[in-house]
Each structure stands twice: as structure tokens, then as C-alpha cells.
Specification:
The complex is a heterodimer of chains A (about 220) and B (about 80). Chain A has five helices and eleven strands. In chain A, helix 2 links the parallel strand 3 and strand 4. Chain B has about 80 residues and is an alpha+beta fold. Chain B has two helices and three strands. Chain B has a three-stranded antiparallel sheet with strand order 2-1-3, with helices on one face. The chains are: A alpha/beta (about 220), B alpha+beta (about 80). Chains A and B meet through loops of A and helix 1 and helix 2 of B. Chain B: One of its GO terms (biological process) is 'de novo' IMP biosynthetic process. Chain B: Belongs to the PurS family. Chain B: Its EC number is 6.3.5.3.
């Protein structure tokens, strides 16, 4: 499996994501600086990391979504290449128009940084196939702007089409319908606020994050 | 020429920051503050003759996220 991790100025989970991909899939990703105008030939997975790209200027993810490399990411996503956006990466994907909705300031206004319980709402995606449908899993969050918003019609459509992949099983940030992660209509672009790459070894307190990368390896070889 | 862009949350979009500002005003003893909505003010210094459509396009493409925000442009 050939993968790339996009690095924006202010990304801070890019190396964690690279380690998770390398350790679980057996192949290290190419790190791609946001000013690049091409992606590695034949890339199977593009990962957008967490962090505070551009210091969250204007809106979280707004500046990064207009970075030169994002035109390539959008083109690749349209061709069906898998794209995973974690935390700030999710914010970038919504700002880039690859996923619907927006991530607003947490309802409680606090930065939330802790392990949270999630429910697997759809286990039929290439990202979630190694989880059992309806299972409760633990994945850490660390964000200030994770309050998922979309209009009622969009939320109904997402739910109706099984595009809500993960939900919070507890109160975290005020997200509409407890949405923690959504996939695009094609099923190849997932954005989620929790950080699966932070819980892949027993030494980190759990391994529930591993299965997302195992699912991607199974789907993409 | 200058353009002043006001970016505001759409009606119906919850504004937890606005609510916190309201509470802070109440804590300072100001009565009668019935609601607060916060937003952004952006001032653009533009070449004379920049068409209005071009400014609107800047707002739609970057300055505002039209999923959650409205914008208003004043040209001076």
C-alpha cells in the first residue's frame, strides 16, 4: 500500500500518523509538504493529519484547504483514492468541500483532550470494516473546534445513506446528532475528529485505533 | 478602494462564543443584554475598480464558510 501524509505549516500529528501507517501497513508513507503540486505516483491512501495548520487563522482548516497540494488531493479523491482526515485534517476536508458540513467551536468552549467512547455507526466502509457494527470503541480526542454542524436536510441525508461512520457515545463537543466522523458519497473520503493514530499500542493505553489502519490495508493492499 | 466584509453566523447556527460574551456582560453588571452574536470584520485594500463580483467571489471562496456563515460587503 502506497501512502502519503500531507504536512501543513502547524501540523503536529503528521509523524504520529506516519508511524501508525508504517507500523501497521508495513510501508512508510511519503511526507508531502503542502506547497507540492504533485502527489507520489500511484498513491493508494492520502492522510491529512491533526494539528493547528496556519494557527487556525480565519477558520480551522480554511487556509490549508486552499494550499497548492489540495488541488491534487481533491483530484485524487475524485478519482477514488482513499483520503483520511484526522482532526484538523477533517476540518481541512470540510473546508475543501470534500465532505459536507463544518466544524465549529466546541459547545462548552473548552479544548477537549481525553479518551472518548465512540459507537461504530457503519462498519461497511473501507475505513471501518475491522470494527463490529454498533461496537463501542475508545479513541482519544484533542480539539477546540469539533462541533459538527450541517443543516437538517444534510444530516438526514448523511444518516439515510449510512455516511455517519462514528458517533460519540458521550457528550463531547455538542456535535449535531453526536457525529464524530463522516464519509463522502463515494465512500473513499473519511473525516473524523478522534485520533486513531494515538491508540495503536498497549503502551498507549489501548489499541482500538489500529483497526482503522488494518481495514485500510485490507482494502488497499 | 476599500472593501469592508462582515462575516456573521447564519441565523439558527448556535453561537457558543456569543453566549459566553453575553454571560460575561451580565457578570459585569450590564442588564438587558438579550442576545449576542459574534462574527468577523475584514478590511480589504483593493486596486481601484475591483469589480464587486470579484469581492463576492473572495468571500465565497475564502473569507466566509457559506455552510455556516453569511457575509456582507461594503465598498468605500
Amino acid at each position: 500500500m502506497k501512502s502519503a501524509v500531507i504536512v501543513f505549516p502547524g501540523s503536529n500529528c503528521d509523524r504520529d500518523l506516519a508511524v501508525a501507517i508504517r507500523d501497521i501497513t508495513g510501508t512508510a508513507p511519503t511526507m508531502v509538504w503542502h506547497r507540492e503540486t504533485s502527489l507520489p505516483e500511484g498513491v493508494d491512501l492520502i492522510a491529512l493529519p491533526g494539528g493547528f495548520s496556519y494557527g487556525d487563522y480565519l477558520r480551522s482548516g480554511a487556509m490549508s484547504a486552499r494550499s497548492p497540494v489540495m488541488a491534487e488531493v481533491i483530484a485524487a479523491a475524485t478519482r477514488g483514492v482513499a483520503v483520511l482526515g484526522v482532526c484538523n485534517g477533517f476540518q481541512v476536508l470540510t473546508e475543501a468541500g470534500l465532505l459536507p458540513g463544518a466544524l465549529m467551536r466546541n459547545a462548552g468552549l473548552d479544548f477537549v483532550c481525553r479518551d472518548v467512547q465512540l459507537t461504530v455507526a457503519n462498519s461497511q466502509t473501507m475505513f471501518s470494516s475491522r470494527y463490529d457494527a454498533g461496537a463501542t470503541i475508545t479513541i482519544p480526542v484533542a480539539h477546540h473546534d469539533g462541533n459538527y454542524f450541517a443543516d437538517a436536510e444534510t444530516l438526514d441525508r448523511l444518516e439515510g445513506e449510512g455516511r455517519v461512520v462514528f458517533r460519540y457515545a458521550e457528550q463531547v463537543n455538542g456535535s449535531a446528532r453526536d457525529i464524530a466522523g463522516v464519509v463522502n458519497a463515494q465512500g473513499n473520503v473519511l473525516g473524523l475528529m478522534p485520533h486513531p493514530e494515538r491508540l495503536i499500542e498497549a503502551e498507549q493505553g489501548g489499541t482500538d485505533g489500529r483497526r482503522m489502519f488494518e481495514a485500510l490495508l485490507a482494502a488497499l493492499g | 478602494m476599500k472593501a469592508r466584509v462582515y462575516v456573521t453566523l447564519k441565523p439558527g447556527v448556535l453561537d457558543p462564543q456569543g453566549r459566553a460574551i453575553q454571560h460575561a456582560l451580565e457578570n459585569l453588571g450590564f442588564g438587558g443584554v438579550e442576545g449576542v452574536r459574534q462574527g468577523k470584520f475584514i478590511e480589504l485594500e483593493l486596486a481601484d475598480g475591483t469589480p464587486r463580483e470579484s469581492i463576492d467571489e473572495m468571500c465565497r471562496k475564502l473569507l466566509a464558510n457559506t455552510v455556516i456563515e453569511n457575509f456582507k460587503v461594503e465598498v468605500a
